[in-house]
Amino acid sequence: MMSTIFPREDKSELLFKKILEDEDACARLSETFYGAIDPDQTMVGGYLKPQEFAKALFDAYTNRDLSALLMALTQNSMFDLLRNSYLAPFRFNEDGKENPIILTDDDGNLRKDLDVEVPEADYERFHREFRHMEDCKMYLAHGCRLNHAYDEKTMDVVEMKSFDHYGVLLIYDLPDTVKQQETEAQAYAAVLDIVLKLQKELPSATVYYGQEVVKKGERGYDELGVFLHKHLLKKNFNRNLEVVTKILHGEKI
Fold this sequence. Notes:
The chain is α+β, with helices and mostly antiparallel strands.
């Protein structure tokens, strides 16, 4: 592990505790921080009150946890920022919650056990374009972007949803990175070229990834999902599908 730029101050807990107990001290700390970010003082402060901000800052320092600080500033963890910048795939079913929600079966028919209402026009448009494909499966799906932040009252970490969307989800099987003893971050690095090329050609496409989520006999597979938002279904869908296929196969577009 690399050393820090500046030596860490040992036993700083008492100092932090006394600052947190003083509202004026927390306010000055917050003002200094945001003043350094925004010298013109157009930024009054973040979404947290000064004492909550100070607590998040001290926790980040004490625990060496960058995400704790980023959530206080941006309402995003480190990997939330990467994912919402389309620089890392979203995780399939993060935090044990189905996302994206697959709305159709392998033959393109609506599932009967859905808790969400599917707009009829979206389903009809999908059904017209549905096809069986050799190297991937096609589904109508509903997804959302996720980020994590502090609850302003309790300071508990909460999950926040944004940008709900319907569209076509294309799912591809990839080699099992768990068996190859790779971490999820290493798997993300391996597919980054795909993510960047998709963003260049189809800027609104969203990529999902899951490690060893598919079992076929004794073998496990990773899954990569390409989510094409419904406006990409309305116009030039065959062309958009061709672009995705070529990028996944490493072919020239």
